[in-house]
Amino acid sequence: MIPEFDRLRDLLVLWFRNNPHAIPADGEGRATVIAKAIAESSRNEVYTVRALRYEVERVIGANLRRLRTQELEVILADVVELTLAISRARDEATEAWRNGLSSWRSDPAAYHAQRRLQDPTLPRRAGAWRARRRPWFAILDAGVRQCKAMDQLLAEETTLLHQLLDAAASVSVARDAQAQETFTLVATVGGVLIGVPALIIALYGADAVLPLNLSNAVVLLPVGAAGLVAGLLAAFLPGRERVGKIGRFSATLIATAAAIILLALAGSLVSPKG
């Protein structure tokens, strides 16, 4: 809730100007017409909320493939705040149509007569017929129906926003899992590229190829071939986006190049004892 809202006077003036009914002189009729005008204007604002939801869906749909997880989390936070605001507005609308715009405070007969219009199974009340003949009763009934329609519309928007929130949260989790998968892949490729040559050197010895030079650098070709095969495998891992495939393939090639450079530098600096 906002304790101090400086635009409340402007909103009331706008409601009064857009009110299609003449404001009667008696207090009950005046209060009913004003309440109905506010209820109708509030229901019209639901379409603004719907347009805002369309915009959120458009932003997520247009940028889903290139959104980072952090940006997606910001959008999720906005959707949560919007859902909270809509839920509060729905609570107010539900309370308004259930208590007949608080008409039970000043005219219980009109309140019960209006409730029986919504639910004919309710028992008859004394004075209900006279209440229905009051000049402002039709406006009261229209205002209550506006609040009820607002409640239904906001319920639909809340459901759709929750579904959008669940979908966006699933995408965020999938992005985190994909990032972890890519990191694991690159780490595995790097470990294999460094571990296999080290194993071969440990088993057979490196005296025959040390120090490395242009004539015996051919021993690094199997390492490069293994890295290229690993890069191709990485490109065909799950993930249909072209950018993701190129990124994984590039990561494995960089790991391969780094391993080859490391081995070449180490081999050129080592002099075997003879």
What would your notes on this structure say?
With 274 residues, this protein is an all-alpha fold. 74% of the residues lie in helices and 0% in strands. It contains eight helices and no strands. It is rod-shaped, with a radius of gyration of 36 Å. The N and C termini lie far apart (85 Å).
Key phrases:
274 residues; 74% helix; mainly alpha
Topology:
Layout: H1 8-17, H2 27-63, H3 69-98, H4 108-118, H5 128-132, H6 137-204, H7 221-235, H8 242-269
Helix pairs in contact: 2-3, 2-6, 3-6, 6-7, 6-8, 7-8
Shape: rod-shaped
Main sheet makeup: none
Distance between the termini: 85 Å
- DSSP, total strands: 0
Poorly predicted spans: none
Strand content: under 5%
Provide mean pLDDT, rounded: 75
Cα radius of gyration in angstroms: 36 Å
Q: Helices and strands: which structural class?
A: mainly alpha
Q: Considering DSSP H and I runs of 4 or more, what fraction of the residues is helical?
A: over 70%
Counted by DSSP, the helix tally is 8
Pattern of helices and strands:
HHHHHHHH
Brief summary of the model shown:
It is built from eight helices and no strands. It has helices at 8-17, 27-63, 69-98, 108-118, 128-132, 137-204, 221-235, 242-269.
